[in-house]
Amino acid sequence: MRQLRIGFRHERGEMDRILEPEVMDSCEDSEAYDAMDHTEVNLAFVERVLELGATGGRILDVGTGPAAIPILLAQRLPTVEVFGIDLSASMLELGNFHAAEAGMTDRIVLKQADAKDLPFPNQFFDGVLSNSIMHHIPDPLPMLREVNRVIRSDGLILIRDLIRPNSTEAALGLVEKHASGATPYQKKLFYDSFLAAFTISEVEDMISQVTLPGTVVVQSSDRHWSVERPKEVD
């Protein structure tokens, strides 16, 4: 598939985005992604969810992929019910397999759905999570507006993704630093994700256009930004 460049408001020295396909729906791509070792990143993500105040209730994972985040969260919180959505049928097939393998099908519900048109009522969730999905979406503003619609006003938010580097050389350096043991195909997927990602300033610009009170945008690692909002405590 031809890669598309998209201009987004950016600072001098920043690369333009080069879009990836929005849906990772080939079995080859899904299985290659699933086979990569995301353990450290996923554990850090779930730890931050707990630090932001998650204790149970209904949590939505947008772009759940093979359901690693819902499984880890359900293992840590015995009263949580996690809904995971993804557009990719092949990813959801892997996710259902892993949820069954972990014995979590009673508390993990996976649906094929578009992040930009969520099939849930207003203020349905106590928290909304998303890990590494925004770079797949050409314009994430509709997704962010849907997050605002389906979350309770006191609910926690954690949206995390890669930061687009300033150059292709910097992107290659991050791939070698964090995926040196991956296959060439997995490295290409990782590299393409960096080129499709957003900068922190672009994320701040999007958040300013969406009513998500109490959220902050932070750099959470050498390669990630996060949009965070803690759960309000009564």
Question: Please, could you describe this protein's structure?
Answer:
The protein has 234 residues and is of the alpha/beta class. The chain has a single domain (22-163, 199-229), classed as Vaccinia Virus protein VP39 (Rossmann fold, 3-Layer(aba) Sandwich), CATH 3.40.50. It has 8 helices and 9 strands. The strands form 2 sheets. Strands 5-4-3-6-7-9-8 form a 7-stranded mixed sheet, sandwiched between helices. It is globular and about 50 Å long. The N and C termini lie far apart (50 Å). Residues 1-12 have low confidence and may be disordered.
CATH class: Alpha Beta
Q: Residue ranges: pLDDT <50 for 5 or more in a row?
A: 1-12
Shape: globular
Rg measurement, Å: 17 Å
User: Number of folding domains?
Assistant: 1
Q: List the strand order in the largest sheet.
A: 5-4-3-6-7-9-8
Q: How do the helices and strands follow one another from N- to C-terminus?
A: EEHHEHEHEEHEHHHEE
Can you summarize the main beta sheet? 7 strands, mixed
Please give the CATH architecture. Answer: 3-Layer(aba) Sandwich
CATH topology: Rossmann fold
Write a concise synopsis of the structure shown.
The chain is an alpha/beta fold and 234 residues long.
